[in-house]
Amino acid sequence: MSAVTLQRGPDLTAKTPAPLSIWAMSDGRIGIEGQVRGLAEAVARLRPAEITVKRVAWKGWTGRLPWWAHPLPRATLTAESRLAAPWPDLWIAAGRATLPLSIRVARWSRGRSFVVQLQDPRLDPAKFDLVIPPRHDGLAGPNVFPIIGAPHGVTAERLAEAGGRFAGAIDPLPHPRAAVLIGGTSKAFALSSERAAALAREIEQSITEAGGSLMMTFSRRTPIPARMLMAARLRHLPGIIWDDEGENPYFAFLAAADHVLVTEDSTNMATQAAATGKPVHILKMDGESARFRRLHAELEAQGVARPFTGELDDWSYPPLAETERAAAETLRRYDARGAAA
Predict the structure, then answer these.
(1) pTM of the prediction?
(2) What number does CATH give the domain 20-148+324-340?
(3) Comparing 20-148+324-340 with 156-307, is the CATH topology the same?
(4) Which label site among 7, 119, 137, 181 has the fewest CB atoms less than 10 Å from its CB?
(5) Superfamily of segment(s) 156-307
(6) Rounded mean pLDDT, 110-138
(7) In DSSP terms, which residues pair with 338 in a beta bridge?
(8) Model confidence at 16, in pLDDT bands (50, 70, 90)?
(9) Which region, left, alpha or beta, applies to residue 138 given φ > 0 means left and ψ of -120 to 50 means alpha?
């Protein structure tokens, strides 16, 4: 008698779990929103999820109040920022503007929403389910999960897609290609015209000696005089200097680069560059910061970054995957809370 293989049909009684609902909360600033979206997208790569990006804005002067001075925070949000049920499974937030909401959403949702706050909230971490700060902030606690740098949305797929869209402009550029990411004014750092001129001279020399090309983009924080000076000094090199016209080729530059040069003022830019597996050269600015020294020391210890020496030295390392690690920990703790309920 011949064997018969019976194929099991779909179990029509089985229920497919609903996708997680995730709200990615920020004040809309590009750097802050990039962090919450980056973590939300990383969670969604591990488990089906629907992501809603929400931008918090406060009426008038209420936006300047400290977190504890908002007794009725939903009443002082702008109409575009209003929040209401159904509340999300995961609430992922960053920035001071979100704090009056993040500390209350567990109550509003009757415990449904698992609250993840990025960065150091500068208040008791126990007010949240999970806090994910940069490790260089030194925050610790039972519900604190520090990571190197900040969450972000850089993935191999995103880089490949961006690189493809700008291939016509970038492919003819000679190697080695240096992506140069210039930040600007912050609490700890500045970019004077003198320092900008020195950076331009060092970058010009390194690319010229290597026979390579330049791909440079600026932050919104870059002072206009520094930006204009660097563009004028470097525009004769083979390459592209983004002029604010059209889409910013930032991710395409990361995709196509052989080296990434990034000013020392930005956690986001440094950790996004670290996700490429390419040498990350840290450019000196005006100012000092112990916090950023710790960040750069961590990146050096991981084999990611080195201070820029004026030469395009080569090295390699496994791309830093801290966003994926944070996403896995978020789901682990979310599941553990559900199991304990």
Answers:
(1) 0.91
(2) 3.40.50
(3) yes
(4) 7
(5) Glycogen Phosphorylase B; (3.40.50.2000)
(6) 96
(7) none
(8) low
(9) left
